[in-house]
């Protein structure tokens, strides 16, 4: 049996995804810890643990309710043990008594015995790129954990997979946005400006949905960098004077979708807001810009360099 790896956790593999910007994306280990807290609360099981997958191998790094460090840093290969089965088959599995179980291999019996756990259920954290981690719930007696605990662990794994998928998409789109911003602007503006405007609006919409404050702020900062590098509307000049009105993030989110021709109801759907809330933000933005219609508000925002 391979010995546990006790080196510090990198938690930055993102399933082997290349080019992930570490300064933008928070550590995925934080998301795993949150998922385990949720799993412990909803399953009622005291001992929960798990880890991320990197280079095809699962590494156990996050633990709650364990009594020893026998499994800390343990690397689990595909098809080996309970976690390896879940990693290879991409579906959950439970055993009522780990050591004599015949449905799994027994490469890791020693650390499991040292911890004293017997009944275990494991669930994959599966996103489109494959299994990105495994969550476990375990007890120290040979009794089934039950359907309720299994369903709760699977729900925590699905929620974690959704969070990782959002982070992946943010990374991908920010790279696209930065690539577009760094390219020399065409003169006159190319037909691709509409696509850039659509991307800008969608990124602001994604930022609106992100709960992590630091990640949301970094994404909005990237949108601002794009505005400074994007071509001026209609080949003209933006008004970068000190008198430029200050619009809130929400007001800019709404205007960015109005600029794409969305109705209030459509903008509300994209931004997960009520239509009346969208109207209120639009009225406030229109007042600040000193105009009297949604179309003039978009034109004024572009003149001031607030929209691409």
Structure description:
The chain has 308 residues and is an alpha+beta fold. The chain has 10 helices and 6 strands; from the N terminus they run αβββαβαββααααααα. Strands 3-2-1-6-5-4 form a 6-stranded antiparallel β-sheet. Helix 1 (28-43) runs antiparallel to helix 4 (146-182) and helix 4 runs parallel beside helix 6. The longest helix is centred in the middle third of the chain and has 37 residues, at 146-182. The chain is elongated.
Question: What's the shape?
Answer: elongated
End-to-end span in angstroms? 58 Å
N-to-C order of helices and strands: HEEEHEHEEHHHHHHH
Number of helices: 10
Average pLDDT number:
83
Describe the structure in brief:
The protein has 308 residues and is of the alpha+beta class.
